[in-house]
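Continuing from the previous page of notes. For each protein in this section, the sequence appears first, followed by its structure tokens. Read the first protein now.
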Amino acid sequence: NKQMPFTDEEVAFKFAMNTINRNSTLLAGSTLTSDIQQIKINDSYEASRAACFQLTLGVAAIVGPSSPRSSPTVQSLCTALTVPNIQTAWNPDQVGDRYSVNLYPDAMMLTQAIIDMVNYYGWTRVTLLYDGDDALIRLQELLKAPARAKMVLKIRKLRREDGEGVLKDSKLDGSNNIIIDVSYEKLPRVLHKALQLGMMTHFYHYIVTSLDLATIDLENYRHGDVNLTAFRLVDNKNPRVQEVLRDWIRVRESSNVISGTIRDGLTTSVALMFDAIYVLVAGLEGSDVGQEISLSKLNCVNRKAWLYGHTVLNYLKIAEIQDGLTGRIKFDSNGQRTKFSLDVMELREAGLTKIGTWNAGEQKALNITDKSLSGSNVTNS
């Protein structure tokens, strides 16, 4: 077969597997093996075919896919054959009776963090710029906010990759409190276009929904006095993250990785994939206590279930990791990650700076500790 370029997530998957296999204290010396299938984004048929092939091999879990449109298909197959499905991306079809856990923070919780920041800054007129219809599902609590509070919300979908049209529209009608929800790949282009249009000044305040703003080069925006706020799940200055990052840089450079945006540190998707394999190990180690777990070659046609799937899934759901690359990992009974912490970041002249935290599941989730410049240039036009 012709070797296709690897994605960062694929390299992270192999990297985590190799790291665990070198650790003799995990899985009682057993070795993890894997099969990786590359599929077209949003192709449910191809996702189904790939998952069915992997199930014939005899697997303890299926990790992925990362596409929100193809993940429900794989999730349904795993449920039918009682094989755990470990997800690392937002899934619009996540329900409690499925055989899955999802390390990606709960979408409703993430949206609440955005709403809390909007309320903290006192915004009453807000513009949402988005690039995909999935955003209208993920951010539905934000879309309901105007009915619950005195807020005017304008919603604008990008018509170009760099968002020029919607940015110009926002500038013309005086919209200056802007939420940007675009893909990680498009985000640098949208920010650069805003700079070209003179929209990176103290008159504007942006909340970026991407959890990876800290890995993008913001050098051109530091001195413009613009208000730029974001959240961060991965702290690249954390000693545990830095330890993994040193090896990750070496592994990534030696791999045939699809070229993409300039990265400074671990992106959220890479860190979540790495953490996912450690969650799998925790589930397998728990399941193996007092009984021997054996894999079965399964068939999508006869739908005969895996005997140990329910046991492994239960241990995955109760797995708790304190020092994950994405912080504490703990699931609710539905396999959702509803307890997690985000760093609140603001752009200062010295760079992107932590000004507080947002802790999911706590009564007072938002805790701003550095108010020296926080929202100092906010206006409400």
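Done with the first. The second protein uses the same format. Note its length before scrolling.
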Amino acid sequence: EATTETETVVETTTETTTTTERDALENDLLLRAAKGEVVSGRHLPEYAAYKKKVGRNFLELLRHPEDVVECTMQPLRRYDVDAAILFSDILVLLEALGIDVTMPGGVGIQVPQPLSDPKEVTERLPGIESMTKEFVADKLGHVLASVEQIIAQMKKEKKSIPLIGFSAAPWTLLFYMVGGSSRKNPDIGMKWLDEHPEESTKLLELLTKLVVEYMSAQVEKGAHILQVFEAMGMMIDEPHFDKFAMPCLETIAAQLKERHPGIPLMVFSRGACFANEKLSQHYNVVTMDGDVTRTTERTGDVSVQGNYDPKELILRKKDDDTSLNSAATVRASVKQMLTDLGPQRLIANLGEGLGGKESPMLVKAFVNAIHEESEQMISSAAAAATE
């Protein structure tokens, strides 16, 4: 991912990082873009080489802070991005709750033993009273240690940019907990909501409390900005979203703002950007996926994130296509995005995650084009204003 006012991102020994330490960044562009201030997938070959070297798959890497640090730092060494994002996964919270998560290969991440009966909300999971700071430290201490060590490594390598912490949103977690897979059971989440509304609400309340504690702990370990991922927003319709998912997202924002008023909050309701207008009342930044109409997405004073098409970063657009993407085509599509959205209050990012086929050369071209083209647009606008 990258920035100027437009910002780009690509993906401590003390208990709490102080505000002074957190704010002392040489490049705080992403934070200023998130706050609306006016400014003037692992596709990397080194990632594949590192996995081979340590002999661990993706989920195994997440359990070792030294691996998380290395994988977080790799994009920062290759690209001139304006923020780092914690190398982690949205389903680590399920593991914390005692739900097994596996990665058998070729089929994505799986939950092999999902909740099969509403009674299991009580029988298999800890109670909501257990969702405390101490629970997070016990069950997710390896993630928190990773955040702390990333901050230290960034200082060591003189990468003075923000670190983005994140979590899945409650609806997304519930979807995986009852369905086991995003591919096999696309309708089971809403079916649960309809058939077991009381247990669904109880589970969402538990997950909301856990998400708040988890994200708050990331801030205490040094994260500068937080993002909530409603990754399975496409698996819920608007009425169900408003009734079940939206209250969770509102509560998360309210409680995190109360605890950490200086920390910007971002939200990505993937496949459900119909919710962005309401979410913009609670979050500093709303994220656009690739399906929205850019020119109508700006609402109020909120900053926006997105929504560059990652297909533009694949050298050959289709396997049987003779046409190629290039630095020039990337720059042209970047200019179009900046024209549509404007260079201010924009965090330039992708509308979907990197899938692994992207060219590092084109990703670098994207980052550079964002910086250069947005700077030129901002300078031109400033010059015109003084004439």
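What the second structure shows: The chain has a mean pLDDT of 89. Residues 133 and 213 are 6 Å apart (CA to CA). We return to this in next week's lecture.
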